[in-house]
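Per your request, structure below.
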C-alpha cells in the first residue's frame, strides 16, 4: 500500500474503533471488509482488543465471487440469501455487539457488462437483518471508507492507478478529519453543528419538504412527529453506548410519510446499486410510490430492488446536506453511497428508521421493507424549501447554503 503511511492507518483505526463504534470492554466486535482492506482491518482488530474486546470476528466479502454468481448461477437462485448470514447479524444483536463495515465492499461498476435485471436480484452483501438490528438499536455500528485501486480508478479515471489511489486516500483523510490534530475533537464539533442545524429545522414544525431544480419538482410529506434533530450525527444503543453510524457524516435526516411523496426527481449523482452503476436516474412518484423509474444506464437493477416487497418503492428517508461540508466542497463524485450521500441532499427508497419519530402514535405509519437504497438529488442548482402546516413555503437550502 504505497499510497498511505502506517501512522495514518493507525490514526484511522483508532477513530473508527474508539469514536465510530465506541468499542467497550468485553464487547464482541464484527468487522466486514473487502480483502484489500486487510491492512486497516488488522489495526482495527488490534485496537479493539486493546480496548478490551472479548472477541473480534472478521468477515471478508470477495466482490469477484458476486460477479461470477451473477454471470453463472440460475436466474431463480439469485435472490436466495444464505440464512446463516442473517443469523450472524441477529446473534450480534443478542450480544449487544459492535459492528464495523469498511466500504466499498463492491467496487463501483464491478458488474458492468452483466444483465442489470440479474444483478438487481442479488442483494448481497446487503441483508435485511442489518436493518432489523439497527431498528432494535442492539448493535453499535459504524461505516467508513477504505480506498482501493478499483474504486480509485472510477473516481480518478485520468490518473494512473497508483496516483489515483494516492489521490483518493488524500480525500478520505480530509473528509474523515484525519488531517486534524485531534480527529475526535474535530468530529465532536462538527456533529454539534449538525445537531444545531437540525434543531432549527425542527423548530419550523414542517409538514413537507419540497425540492425544485433541473428535472426535479418533488414534495415529500412528513409525519406529524418527524424530527431531524433526534439523531444529529450520532445515535445510542439500547444499552446506552453512543456511536457514530457514518464516518464521515454530514447529513440531517428524518423519516417521511410514505404515502405523501408527489412529483418527479432527477438524481444529481450516479448511483451504484451493488456494483451496477446507474446514470441519469429519474423517478416519478404518485401517492408516495415510485411509479416510473428511468435511467440512462442500468435502470432495471433498481427496478428489481423496488420490486422486492410492498415498501421497496416508497420512501424511508429524506436527508438534507449543505454544500459547505468537507465532502461537498471537494465537488467530487465518489460513486460510493457513504461519501456521496454526505455531499448532497438525498432520499432513500425502502425501509424507514423509527428513531427520528417523536410520537409513538406515528410509528405504525412508517415504511417497512427489506431494502434501503439511497440516491442523491441535491446540488447548488436544487433549491429546498419547507412547507409549514399552515401552507407557507420557507427556503431551507439555496445555492448549497442554509437559509435558516
Amino acid at each position: 500500500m504505497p499510497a498511505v503511511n502506517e501512522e495514518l492507518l493507525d490514526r484511522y483505526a483508532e477513530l473508527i474503533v474508539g469514536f465510530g463504534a465506541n468499542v467497550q470492554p468485553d464487547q464482541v466486535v464484527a468487522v466486514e471488509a473487502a480483502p484489500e482492506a486487510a491492512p486497516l482491518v488488522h489495526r482495527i482488530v488490534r485496537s479493539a482488543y486493546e480496548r478490551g474486546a472479548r472477541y473480534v470476528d472478521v468477515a471478508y466479502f470477495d466482490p469477484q465471487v458476486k460477479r461470477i454468481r451473477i454471470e453463472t448461477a440460475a436466474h431463480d437462485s439469485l435472490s436466495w440469501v444464505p440464512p446463516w448470514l442473517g443469523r450472524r447479524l441477529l446473534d450480534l444483536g443478542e450480544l449487544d455487539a459492535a459492528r464495523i463495515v469498511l466500504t466499498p465492499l463492491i467496487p463501483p461498476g464491478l458488474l458492468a457488462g452483466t444483465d442489470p435485471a440479474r444483478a438487481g436480484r442479488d442483494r448481497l452483501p446487503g441483508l435485511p437483518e442489518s436493518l432489523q438490528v439497527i431498528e432494535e438499536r442492539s448493535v453499535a455500528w459504524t461505516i467508513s471508507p477504505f480506498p482501493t485501486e478499483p474504486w480509485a480508478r472510477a473516481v480518478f479515471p485520468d490518473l494512473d492507478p497508483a496516483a489515483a489511489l494516492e489521490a483518493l486516500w488524500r480525500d478520505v483523510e480530509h473528509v474523515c478529519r484525519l488531517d486534524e490534530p485531534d480527529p475526535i475533537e474535530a468530529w465532536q464539533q462538527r456533529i454539534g453543528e449538525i445537531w444545531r442545524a437540525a434543531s432549527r429545522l425542527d423548530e419550523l414544525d414542517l409538514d413537507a419538504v419540497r425540492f425544485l431544480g433541473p428535472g426535479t419538482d418533488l414534495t415529500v410529506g412528513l409525519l406529524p412527529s418527524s424530527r431531524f434533530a433526534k439523531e444529529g450525527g450520532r445515535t445510542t444503543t439500547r444499552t446506552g453506548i453512543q456511536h457514530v453510524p457514518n464516518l464521515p457524516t454530514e447529513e440531517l435526516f428524518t423519516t417521511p410519510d410514505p404515502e405523501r411523496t408527489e412529483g418527479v426527481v432527477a438524481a444529481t449523482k450516479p448511483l451504484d446499486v451493488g456494483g451496477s452503476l446507474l446514470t441519469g436516474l429519474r423517478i416519478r412518484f404518485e401517492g408516495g410510490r415510485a411509479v416510473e423509474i428511468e435511467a440512462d444506464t442500468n435502470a432495471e437493477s433498481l427496478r428489481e430492488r423496488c420490486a422486492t416487497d410492498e415498501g421497496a418503492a416508497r420512501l424511508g428517508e429524506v436527508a438534507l446536506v449543505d454544500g459547505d461540508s468537507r465532502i461537498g466542497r471537494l465537488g467530487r463524485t465518489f460513486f460510493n453511497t457513504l461519501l456521496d450521500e454526505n455531499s448532497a441532499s438525498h432520499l432513500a427508497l425502502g425501509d424507514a428508521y423509527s428513531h427520528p419519530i417523536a410520537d409513538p402514535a406515528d410509528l405504525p405509519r412508517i415504511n417497512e421493507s427489506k431494502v434501503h437504497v439511497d440516491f442523491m438529488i441535491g446540488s447548488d442548482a436544487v433549491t429546498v424549501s419547507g412547507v409549514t402546516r399552515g401552507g407557507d413555503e420557507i427556503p431551507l437550502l439555496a445555492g448549497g447554503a442554509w437559509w435558516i
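Residues 176 and 248 are 5 Å apart (CA to CA).

Regards,
D.
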